[in-house]
Specification:
The protein contains 9 helices and 14 strands. By secondary structure, the protein is of the alpha+beta class. The chain has 2 domains: about 140 residues, Fructose-1,6-Bisphosphatase, subunit A, domain 1 (Fructose-1,6-Bisphosphatase, Chain A, domain 1, 2-Layer Sandwich), CATH 3.30.540; about 110 residues, D-Maltodextrin-Binding Protein, domain 2 (3-Layer(aba) Sandwich), CATH 3.40.190. The protein is globular.
């Protein structure tokens, strides 16, 4: 049984369920604040993904947002899953949210799947096989001049308004690029860079389940991904993220 095909099937099944759901106010809960929300559907979809993956591959490990990680087993492959990336968008807009599934064998990427649920657009990549949106190959832009670049970030307040060690640098960067956009989903915004519709991505906080699928897609599309310090992006811990349309941009952006 092929993990990629199982992954595509379970992601599409989960997307079909989410498109049909009608969210009730009682199904929405706060995690840490009124800006950090979770719904019963986050938990239901993650449980669905976990059950179907582990039924097919019981020795695999799963790292997800809503439930404790499955214990790593000998010779295990690890799946990083985010049942609803962009929960606030799901609640308020019922669009611009994604199901994200990345599969890794140790530190080796196997494949990444990001489903833009409402648009029924599946971004995907298998290691060494390029990046795709549905049946169409995608590639990062060729733009290299700073004044031509479009920057995207999932949270304007966390990137530009709230104090953090990189705040002034981010403000300077925003003034020099062509524009700044905020979609509100780490996975979808990294896919925007992969598809050439944006050139830079930055966030001050991201978890492995947020980016470990889309990073595969971005790199297969010709892009590169680091921490905002320009260091290798860790696989198994929370971090800042800097996504680029080309690795050549790294030193350029770090000197802004």
């Amino acid at each position: 049984m092929d993990r990629f095909n199982v992954g595509v099937k379970v992601v599409q099944n989960a997307g079909n369920l989410l498109r049909q759901c009608r969210l009730e106010e009682a199904e929405i809960c706060q995690k840490t604040s009124h800006q950090d929300l979770v719904t019963l559907w986050d938990r239901r979809i993650e449980q669905l993904l976990r059950n179907e993956i582990l039924t097919a591959f019981p020795r695999d490990a799963i790292v997800g947002e809503e439930y404790p990680s499955e214990a790593h087993r000998a010779e295990s492959v690890t799946w990083y899953i985010d049942p609803i990336d962009g929960t606030t968008n799901f609640i308020n807009q019922h669009q611009n949210y994604a199901i994200s599934v990345g599969c890794w064998d140790g530190n080796k990427p196997l494949f990444g799947l990001v489903l833009d649920v409402e648009r029924k657009a599946l971004y995907w990549a298998r290691h060494g096989g390029g990046a795709w949106q549905g049946q169409t190959p995608i590639h990062t832009s060729g733009r290299r001049e700073l004044s031509d670049l479009l920057l995207t970030t999932p949270g304007l307040q966390y990137t530009f308004l709230e104090p953090h060690p990189y705040q002034e640098r981010m403000i300077q960067l925003s003034r020099k690029v062509r524009g700044v956009r905020c979609l509100g989903s780490v996975a979808l915004e990294l896919c925007e860079v992969a598809a050439g519709r944006a050139d830079l991505f930055v966030t001050m906080r991201s978890s492995p389940w947020d980016h470990n699928a889309a990073r595969i897609i971005l790199e297969e599309a010709g892009g590169a991904i680091f921490t905002v310090e320009g260091k290798p992006l860790p696989l198994n811990q929370k971090s800042t993220v800097l996504g680029l349309s080309s690795a050549d941009l790294r030193d350029y952006i770090l000197t802004v």
